[in-house]
# Entry
Amino acid sequence: MKVRAQRVFVILSLVVGVCAQSFGLHQYIPAQHPHKVAKHVTVRRHSRLRRALWNPVFRPSHDSLLRQNAEIDRLDLPRIHDDDELEALIAKGDLVPIEESDTLRIDHRLDPSRRYCRPWTRDFLQDLSQAYYERFNTSIQVNSAVRTVLVQRKLRRHNRNAAPEYGETASSHLAGITVDIQRRGMSREQIKWMEQYMVPLRDEGLLEPEEERHQWVFHVAVSGRYADYRESRVVAGQQHDPTTNFGQFEFQPTRVSDASSANQ
# Structure
């Protein structure tokens, strides 16, 4: 019996050893190609670098959309639903055409029926484009202006970053107060100049700008107060230059508490 037990033990040991080797073969993980590993690491590094380098002055946010819509509500402006409403506002003069000049050009892809905005928004464009032309001897480009709800709905089908057509964070393009100014192609100096130009206007509650990352534009919503600001400087005989002190002209910006800030 003792000899039989020893034989059984030896046989079981051999079986376990063979199974263990077989299991080990199935657990073999082939080594990754070094070039593929290096490429993956490089892509991740470049992605982190792009995120680090993109640090705009006017970062898009949920609160920014709330402020834009708060200004639209303060002015009691409608969100334009369709082309019929758009044409009616144009006929009444509530929306004015954006016209090309030496200082301002329009993206040729923008539908002529949507090359309109509010009068104070056009005033801002004229002031900005003139100052930019005097500094760099070149023009700025408008990529987008007024939109209808139907146009915004179509845009959202292929652009997941577009603002909604309804609600408290709806696109401010729907009221005609907003324009998109092309940022692609601008040098770092030109982008910095644009930011410095708009910062004091933003701080006074006259603009709500955003630097969109995917579309490479300055999205600028212009407050109705801009018309009063502009007129005050004309009356005072001051050259329009928001990079200098605003003097006695002060507005309390209409702001939504930053306590509820969240990414768009």
About this structure: Confidence is low (pLDDT under 50) at residues 22-29, 245-264. The CA atoms of residues 114 and 146 lie 5 Å apart.
